[in-house]
Amino acid sequence: MNIRDAAFRKFLIVWSGQLFSAIGSGLTAFALGVFVFQKTQSAMDYSLIILFNFLPSFLMLPFTGVLADRFDRKKMMILGDAGSIAGILFILFIMMSGNVDLWHIYLGVALSSVSAAIQIPAYKAAVSDLVSEEQYSQASGLIQLAGSAQYLISPMIAGFLVSYFDIKLVLILDIMTFVIAVAAVLVITKREAAPRQQDNRNFFRDLTDSFRYLLSRKGILWLVVLTSMVCFYIGLLQSLFGPMVLALADSRTLGIALSLSATGMLVSSLLIGVFGLKQSKVFILSLFLALAGLFYALMGLFPAVAMIIVFGFLFFVTLPFVNTSLEVLIRTNVDNENQGRVWSMVYAISQVGFILAFGSAGFLSDHVFNPLLLPDGALSQTVGQLIGTGQGRGIGLLFVLSGLFVSLLGLMIGRVKKIKALESDAAGEARATGVSG
């Protein structure tokens, strides 16, 4: 028991550093998005920041996941955070020169994304090193809490900072949070839960084996493919929430709206972190994904910031339950020595949905949905009578349709037999381990 407690304390140290890092990343993401949108008034330019933040990670994660199983995960986390500092420094130096263009921002964000691809699978795999299986749901809940900080805390702070200070201050603060994350990893003592005996194996063979491993787990593969479809619609929301609110209000209001909405994520993350999840993970995943879709649709229905905040809050309440259920189902069905590479494959496949969303969201908004709901648009006298007309209302219609599809996918996940079998398989393995121990 004492060993488990000591290991969990080490996890908490690393987690604390990642919490500060998430807050800093949220500051930069918000500030750069507002900076670009105010400069160009284009949802496409806004969404391209998010695309360049994800695309390099998407391309590199399968490779860095293999590295997380072959090398020291702590050192990989430090390398990833240090690389993220370099990307933000690049943007900062360009802005200080006074000659910043959009491609400078996109390049700096992409450099940080490459570094995140190194850090993410190492961090995910290190959780299995540091905590016992009984603590997986608590650790996952705390990870969701840290991730929610960039939506809960960062937007409100960033909205204030960009209103009264130069954006360069935001970038400096982000760099400082990455330094804290590196220091937190350095504090913990080196600990490997499983020996690394793969250094002399062929790298690409490991990569191929990781894909075969995932294919052999049909339930996990089904889960990841359906999750990728959900991620497409979540990516649309992530790309267009800012432009939709900025069409109704200013950047400070957007920051407040994001922070208040994300309070829901804080509430449910704390509940999961303290109590864990005792019920069927597949049932929880299906139920809360269906609810997420409902609240997603309602966010787009009303052209009022107050209503967007209310349904945004309820939407964010559901996300930690969805994410934690996914994490526990995957983590309990994958051997520890394969955690790094499998997590990288899971991220790579699921993020296909995000990449497609980030690449298409701006076009769908600027050239398809928004024109339909302008005062003289094709749907202004029909759908427009229900959800309103004008700038940003096309995004509202896109949210309504996307939310309905997310609810349908949530109901589908609960009916796939291969996914439902994951829970019984994990329980069987746990009983077998207990007998043999």
TrEMBL record:
Membrane topology: Multi-pass membrane protein
InterPro entries cross-referenced by the UniProt entry: MFS, MFS_dom, MFS_trans_sf
Gene Ontology CC: plasma membrane
Protein name in UniProt: Macrolide transporter
TM stretches of this protein: 12-37, 43-66, 78-97, 103-122, 142-163, 169-188, 220-241, 253-275, 282-302, 308-330, 342-364, 395-414
Coarse class of the protein's main subcellular location: membrane
Highest taxon of the lineage: Bacteria
Organism annotation: Paenibacillus tyrfis
